Protein 1
Amino acid sequence: MHWESERLLYRPIEYTDLQALFRIYGDARTHQFNPRGPYPSLDHAREVLLRRIKDRAIHGFDDWVIMEKSDPQHVIGFGGVFVSEFNGRRTNNLGYRFEPDAWGKGYATELAHRAIRHGFEDLKLKEIVGVVRENHTASRRVLEKVGMTFLERVFNPQDPPASLMFTITRQQWRERNGTGH
């Protein structure tokens, strides 16, 4: 299955995406707001990729591989809605990571709108959350632009800075987008 938005194409992750996953998540620049740092090795990226494929089989969805329509063979990022654990609760998490050349073009917002629509219309999720580091103002703005509202600040002394959790329910999304009940 494939999805699209105005400028972007999306598809499920496949094993052949290993090099692109490591290229993007192994780049220190893409982890500037993530204290855990970039993926340390191709083997680590392989473990993550296999876990994502397994998660998709378990939950029926996971985040997507992202390409520009103008260059559909080149992966520019990964993102969408996936199941994760945050602050002791299972969440349908909106997340994204783009290669640095794709930054500043509004792609995160475009992806977020499309992923939320997919989550509520196709997957029938009741709530989607987004989690960002307190100091990552660009990602905070993306979550706010797509209608998510601040829910809570979570501080873990072993993993500073604090994370901020944003949320939107299917009902809130419907009201904001005029899709009724």
Protein 2
Amino acid sequence: MVPADPVAYRAAHARAEAALAEARAGGGPVGFALLRRVGVGRLVLGDPAAARGPLAEAVRRSDTPRRRVAALVNLADAHRYDDRGPDGGDAARAPALPLYRRALRLARRACPELEHFVLQHLGKHHLEAGEPERARPVLLLALRTRREMGDAELIASTGAALARCGGPPAGPGAD
């Protein structure tokens, strides 16, 4: 998660933070989209611990399965990316796996078009946890769907993650 234009991204994020503060001060409802935007912004800007609050609230306020899946993955990512703490971040990262699994169950049940998205993030979680043997089959499932979709960027992203797993490359017939 790296913004193409960091200056513009920081400015947009500052506006989102201000809008959230204003909504909270006014006592009005704080919507899912704003919470998710602020949470993801904090994540992108390198503060996963600060991202978790708005993302957890976005999960609670999600009004559709698609929104809930997206917010669950973002919240899991906020745990996955947190490497702070005396234990190297292990305690902060621990909640990620159950959140990814929850998102995957919901995607499979209610919005299967998002399954590849969850699988990609779950596979990368396993990679970063030093579990390439667990990552590879998950990423191969994501790759199969992404090939069916024909999205070259998504295919390349999954291919890059698979390359980090070791073993033979995931050629067109590997899934």
Protein 3
Amino acid sequence: MQNVIELLQSHRSIRKFTNQPIEPDLLKALIRSGQSAATSSNLQGVSVIRVRNPETRAAMAKHAGGQAYVEEAAEFLVFCADLNRSGWCCEQSGTPMAEGMTEHFIIATVDVALFAQNVVVAAESEGLGICYIGGLRNNPEPVSELLALPEHVYPVFGLCLGYPDQDPECKPRLPLDAVLMEEHYQPVNPELIAEYDEVMRDYYQRRTHGQLNRAWSEDMPELLGKKSRPHMKAFLDSKGFKLR
């Protein structure tokens, strides 16, 4: 088994998978690993939906922006932030859940991220490849309908799981000094950003055989300089997450 630190630092997104299935016992072990993640106040605000129906998979792929690997991966899981189960407990006790609390929303969403990352690390330790599918939030309403999600549950992201049929290079990350700070927040260091920009240009040049020449700092205005999924606020309101 790989050293854990080496395993974590070798993460890549896999978008091509073999036809080899994942053994049921292994899949259950991965989900149990997710359940072992930290959870605030033991809320355990996560539900995982395994999608096997080919028609549903095809619809999910379409709603996620045409990502074919959603259909092709051995397993496709949808990770949901879930306050419905804990809300039911409140109802049974005669103390209704205080709806719309931002903190509850954050707790459940963070629980999902921690749970899923445990699943991912466990999967990669077993030779599996993964790809997160945040594109489900492009069309959260039809995704929710396909999964019959009740109030107080929303799909955070999907996850493709399978045995890799490709060996991509790890995508470089920002220099450690750009993210690890001492005692207080440090201003942006232009030299570190410029250094990383060149690393990313080289990476994209290799990955695309010279077709793409792009820097990280140039990507940020594309990402943050425009509205991003503005429908999510209304959608979350409709699912009972009326944040206050």
Protein 4
Amino acid sequence: MTVNFDDGRTMKQRMLAGELYLADDPELTAGAERAVRLQAEYNATFPVDGERASEILAELIGSLGEGVAVKAPLYVDYGSNITIGAGTFVNVGLVALDVTPITIGAHCQIGPNVQLLTPTHPLDPEPRRAGYEAGEPITLGDNVWLGGGVIVCPSVTIGENTVVGAGAVVTKDLPSNVVAVGNPAKVIRTLD
């Protein structure tokens, strides 16, 4: 498999477009190092200085709505590709791997140890061995509730007001106003 990187775009532009890229690119490495530094500072500061922790979080995350609460620890790839809507609450241990955009709507409830995973890798072993990666965005509509330990896979959109039960693995889009559980997550009822 040959990939043409001679189209004038940076690896970051390719990454954000969901196309194959090389993660060891200097610009991407600098962004990842920034995220590691800021998330470590946030995680250490959160228990002792809430005001300073909020400032660090605002620097780390691409866009934060009014009244967002994110409990530490928090783990991201870049942070800058994450949008969190107003009034959203994120419990401890969120892993948000944002090689492509992660959009979390307003007034969402994110349980402990949730994983939002945008990265993908080629199935063919040769390009994978060569270091090629890609990603697909994740979108959570307004008022989504993800129970503890939910895993949301790349390219998934979850519609507004939907509830995903603890431990579910969401591999495909979920419509608005439903309850979904299991691995893979399946809709078990609609909400009025």
